[in-house]
Amino acid sequence: MAQAHRSGGPVRTARRRRVCGHARALLAILVTALVAGGAVPYVSGPGRAYVSYLVLAEREDAAGAARAGKESRAAGGQVVQEYPQIGAVLTYATGGFAERVRRRPGIAAVGATRTAPVVGPPRELAGAGDFAAGGGRGWRGDAGDGGTGTTAGTVPDPREGGAWNLAMVHAGAGTASGAVAGVGPTGDGVGGVPGPEAMRKVLVAVLDSGVDDTHPDLRAAVDPKASASCADGRPDARTGSWRPDPGVEESGHGTHVAGIIGAARDGQGVTGVAPGVRIAAVRLLGPLGQYYAENIVCGMLWAADHGAKAINDSYFADPWKYNCPEEPDQAALIAAVGRAVAYARRKGAVVVASAGNDGQDLGAARTDRRSPNDRVTGPAPTRDLGTECIRLPGELPGVVTVTAVNRDGSPSSYTNYGRGRISLAAPGGDPDGGAEGAIVSDWPGGRFAALAGTSMSAAHVTGAVAVAAALHPDFGAAQLADLLARTAAGCPVRGCGDRGHFGVGLLVVPR
Predict the structure, then answer these.
(1) Residue 498 confidence (pLDDT)
(2) 206 phi, psi to nearest 5 deg
(3) DSSP code string of 459-470
(4) 8 A C-beta contact, residue 384 and residue 365
(5) Burial 210-233, CB ≥16 within 10 A → b, else e
(6) What's the pLDDT at 462?
(7) How far apart are CA 490 and CA 305, in angstroms?
(8) Most buried of 62, 144, 189, 452, CB within 10 angstroms?
(9) Residue ranges of the chain with pLDDT lower than 70?
(10) For the segment 457-502, what is each residue's pLDDT rounded down to a tens digit?
């Protein structure tokens, strides 16, 4: 079963880009850098191979970041971004760097964030933003220029009809027979959502492949001042940086997720769970098609510092599907993303993540046959993993982790699960059920696609957090998450608690 990253077309689970495609992309970058003088996102070096590292100081503050930067430079690294909020830096270096810096005083962890080297650190950004200040124009209700050129298959404009997923999350408790109350073939339960003025005061962040803010359903929702790209671990707030890159496979995924959360209710297209909410579009997907840990850290900090009440994470961190604390590099990635999540929660954001689409019990030993997924040759080794190995960010403390259910309320066949590892269940759809059984939402270029996956489930929960924040503007992150737990519908089908598919229950949007 494919992963919960993003999607490549209609009526199927969001899937990962192929390794062969990545190999071609990396080869193209290396060739271009050497032949054309570096018209690529990385600075070419004199025959050297660089790897990116996250260096974490013991102190989780600006002084810690300064120490991490100092020790990185002393060990021959090139610091390209500081994260003063969590006492860390992003550094590019050649071989032996991690071992040298781990021995330095004041350093807590050092970890390589990739396994495939690049020809050099990323180039300097002209006009890039910082974490405290956005770029571009203010929030507006008009369309920007252009769009994306994705050629994924699409479905006709649903004209806000047949949204079984919205009916489900607005319906309340289901019946014991498994048919969720209020869900019919044309149900579109959207009642109880606060009006546009209340919703407009709430900002949610979509950390994903980018969002097409020229889509009619989203043009009034995406807030340029709160949007950016973190595609190489640095905040780039230049206008349009948050839009999907049509040259990267499955770059329409973030637009689909954003539509589920906040598409306008205007009689056209689809309606989001929280129509009227402002969306911070934060593109994480880089030119090599990866969601590296530095991209996630950058995006999480950006969203938190711009006041997001919810942060949607419908992906897992590359290159390791599961990160194991006994591996020094992976332990550093766990610590870095964990610090960023904790920071976001302290700033008032509910961090929402997809559980994943492997059909695996996250509370049991499991096998990983796909990592590292940024390798350029050969098959991946088989990794037999214990329960200490976790998905990032979905299995970090405090994250609201979401599984998927079908239209009848039953667990989707692909969804991960696990007693004590899951927070809520929400509509994810059936990839084999046609457009009527999947989740229809926005797609770049003003189009629509029907997809299925826990990516879609997480987006429903993020929309529900936005509604809760509009109803209770004084609530913090813990109070908002607790409200969703208290309003959940419980177990909507017989025996659903046996394998930990539902956490506290099926999502119900607060009223």
Answers:
(1) 52
(2) -110, 100
(3) HHHHHHHHHHHH
(4) yes
(5) bbbbbbebbbbbbbbbbbbbbbbb
(6) 98
(7) 34
(8) 452
(9) 1-47, 127-129, 133-153, 172-191, 492-499
(10) 999 999 999 999 999 999 999 999 999 999 998 776 665 555 589 9
pLDDT digits (tens, 9 = 90+) for 211-270: 999 999 999 999 999 999 999 999 999 999 999 998 887 899 999 999 999 999 999 999
Contacts of 20 (CB under 8 A, 6+ apart): none
Cβ atoms of 271 and 264 closer than 8 Å: yes
- Beta strands 424-427 and 400-405, pairing class: parallel
Omega before 393 within 30 of 0, i.e. cis: yes
What is the longest distance spanned by two Cα atoms in the chain?
A: 67
Q: CA 318, CA 314: separation in Å to the nearest integer?
A: 13
User: Rounded to an integer, what distance in angstroms lies between the CA atom of residue 438 and that of residue 404?
Assistant: 11
Task: Kindly list the distances between the CA atom of residue 177 and the CA atoms of 55, 170, 407, 408, 410, in Å, as whole numbers in the listed order.
Answer: 52, 19, 13, 9, 10
Amino acid at 186: T
CA-to-CA dists, residue 492 to 57, 146, 357, 457, 509, angstroms: 46, 44, 21, 16, 15
d(CA 49, CA 46): 9
Within 13 Å, how many C-alpha atoms sit on residue 350's CB side?
32
pLDDT at 371: 97
Strand residue runs (E) in 159-235: 203-208, 228-229
